[in-house]
Amino acid sequence: MLSLEMILTLAAPPNQVNPPHFLTQINAFCRPLPYAPPYPLRSPTMQKMKAAIFLAPGKITLGEKPIPEIGPLDALMRITTTTICGTDIHILKGEYPVAPGLTIGHEPVGIIEKLGSSVEGFQIGQRVIAGAITPSGHSCACLCGCASQDGAGTKHGFKAIGGWKFGNTIDGCQAEFLRVPDAMANLAMVPDDLTDEQVLMCPDIMSTGFSGAESGKIRIGDIVAIFAQGPIGLCATAGAKLSGATTIIAVDGIDSRLEMSRALGADHTVNFNSCDPVAEIMRLTDGRGVDVAIEALGTQTTFESALRVLRPGGTLSSLGVYSTDLTIPLSAFAAGLANTSIVTTLCPGGKERMQRLISAISSGRVDLKPMVTHRFKLADIEAAYDLFGHQRDGVLKVAITT
């Protein structure tokens, strides 16, 4: 196992082995901590952990880092299960920039290993999840209902994408341990009768997908189209059904995903490889168009198609992560006079959100466990990235266990 410093030495450009400014950035994530975990299977002297570390575009590798320190309001989670997200692939490809040396991952399921001195309401040993978005709970953004744009510590209390910290601005959860900031605002206990895989989608995929339906303000009886049936799109399909939509049209190019979308609530499926999805949706709605179109991929094509199938006064609810500029075709926008609404949403997080999603699973209203198609150990996470990043073997979501 290579240490983080050894990995960075190998990754550094020629004649720039371990440049001081480079290591200064990395050291912000890697402060050592004397640590004695309470679990008998782990050595009380262990201070290192395995982690998936981003080095540079195209390079995420398994390395070794110090176990994180925690502050008074934090918790240390021992990760039992996590996964890889499409956003992690954006990071791997260099389409979304993060600091070299960062541990990737933002979908944690695990056990409380240690609690900060000021944390109340939780106990060491409890099974918990934390959302991909970890709001502080006290910023202006949080207090006005925009917790995903948390700007704690900034002048005005708002920061775009500020609630997304894991694997973005602080070390993430594709590791043996994770520091959870503002633990009382972000940890949610997992009932004993639910498995890790049953709640694995809650931190991000389920929360994001459901938010597409919520932000679209789907009403009972609505006609809804969801463009892309990857993990987020499938959750958007399930969310549309739970929100009361009575006609749900799922669009994708992979038949197995369209089949799963039917299991989660789609009434019609459209394979864009065999027809024009815009024309087909207009046919299915007798030329009316849909009340809400959810974009769940993040491309110009899906965004534009979602816009073109809206009825006048309809809502485009966008969930995709876009890597290039978007354009709005004049004909699809009716010169800006069709009362069209375009809304975007970053995955809602926080304890209350996680508890509600867990409740939806506990009640049997939705079952997302079938979305886990492949399983890996953390030691094999590079192979998991290769499979997921190249979308081979019908992969939807991978479960990574430590």
What value does the Rg take, in angstroms? 22 Å
- The total count of strands amounts to 15
Q: In this structure, how is the largest beta sheet organized?
A: 7 strands, mixed
Q: Which band does the percent of strand residues land in? A: 15-25%
Task: Describe this protein with a few key phrases.
402 residues; alpha/beta; Quinone Oxidoreductase, Chain A, domain 1; Rossmann fold; seven-stranded mixed sheet; six-stranded parallel sheet; 15 strands; 28% helix; globular
Walk me through this protein's architecture.
The structure is a single chain. This protein has 402 residues and is an alpha/beta fold. The chain has 2 domains: 4-131 and 166-201 and 368-401, Medium-chain alcohol dehydrogenases, catalytic domain (Quinone Oxidoreductase, Chain A, domain 1, Alpha-Beta Complex); 207-344, NAD(P)-binding Rossmann-like Domain (Rossmann fold, 3-Layer(aba) Sandwich). The chain has 14 helices and 15 strands. Helix 7 packs across helix 8. The protein is globular. It starts with a helix and ends with a strand. Residues 12-44 have low confidence and may be disordered.
